[in-house]
């Protein structure tokens, strides 16, 4: 097509003919058809471009909506993570506040213990000073007591000498009385009497000194007892001092553990001023916490494996024990048979022993009867009886004594055979007769009774000391013993924690997959597999919660229906009314606060009897409920 044919106007020529006009018309028709085809092609191309751009725009809109949803999800996850971070911060702050409160309580306890320790030290120092003073006083009193004892001995000797002199003087007075005819003798007797009176005064003075010495001796004994009690108090204070030292050591250990556990967190939280550094520290702490949780899980698995191995070892030990019992069963049977034989022999020996003891008792009774008969014969007979009878009785007694000795030897041999120990038989000895003085017997009895009382007191004090030692050991064990927390393997709390950890892991994987997919790829048409896995996990968790709630709801409804039936039956039984709840006028599926009370004594078959009921509305805001009788 030429440039000329494309012009929109028609060129008229003056010299054209009809054929030229026809040719011109055909050309114009051809150009018109070409323009129409070109227009149709342009319309088709524009339609295809429009459709392609519309498809591209719809696809981009879908991608934009998906990205908007993903960004909303990521934004929500960010909010949740921020809330969790805030919760962790609150928990960390609460734990730090708890730890600070615990440290303050420990400081208070430490202060109280220090005050108690100072008080005990002051008391100990005062008691030790008093004890030293008492020891010095006791030593001084003991030395004085020794001096007084020496003086008492000297005075006793002087008293003996004066008593002898007094006896001589009394003898001389008697002689002077006999010779009282002479006046000089009377004068010497008067002098001797005066001298005797002076000696008696000195004797009374010496007796008073002796009494003072005895009183001093009793005071010294009391001081000794007091010193012993103070020494016991000193020992108790020393034990209290040791206990305080142990408590101080325990407090230092607890303080070291506290500094080790909570010092790092407190230093980091106090050191950082800006929020970003605190967030970084908290995130690092959370990472450490998760690492510790993973380590705890690994150690828990190892513990389970160790428990399984322990159970296997116990089973193998039980099998070995059973095998050893089977192998040692014949030997046990033999030993049992031998034991039965030995027990039978022991029973026979016991029977023999009983017979021997009875025979010995019979012989003793016969000897006593014979002695009584001999005494009666000796008292009744005179001095001129024959000596042959006495010799025969003596021979009979000697034979009886030999027989008793033989029985004793046999009993000793049987006892040796029974015990398996060779013990030399005791030679028979006759009981010697004891000649005792009444005062000596009385003194020994009183001393024996005092000894028994003192032994009983000592035993009671030893028992108290052992009880206190046991209590102290138990308290020490309770303070030093570590507490072990028993945790079930299928603990619901641990299961919940595992579910939360699983959801967190799935969310983390989903975020990582979304980030990698949208960052690395520009054109994204598919969803990551982690998103589907997370959604499935959420569905499973929700379904499990729904099942649990349905079970709980069904259980509660069944319990509610049973209890309501029981209550209604009890009300109708004891009060004579059956209860009917009125449906709500706003919602027929719900109940209102009104109730109808029908008497079970009324016949409800007729229409009039059905209208006889009592309406109760306890929710009316008045002081008393309203009762309407229809």
Automatic annotation (TrEMBL):
Domain of life: Eukaryota
Name by which UniProt lists this protein: Spindle assembly checkpoint component MAD1
Coiled-coil parts of chain: 39-70, 321-359, 397-478, 532-559
Principal place of residence: nucleus
Chain spans, region Disordered: 86-105
Any one of the GO CC terms: nuclear envelope
GO biological process, one term: mitotic spindle assembly checkpoint signaling
Record's keyword terms, sorted: Cell cycle, Cell division, Coiled coil, Mitosis, Nucleus
Composition-biased stretches (Low complexity): 95-104
Family in the record: Belongs to the MAD1 family.
Compartments, as annotated in UniProt: Nucleus
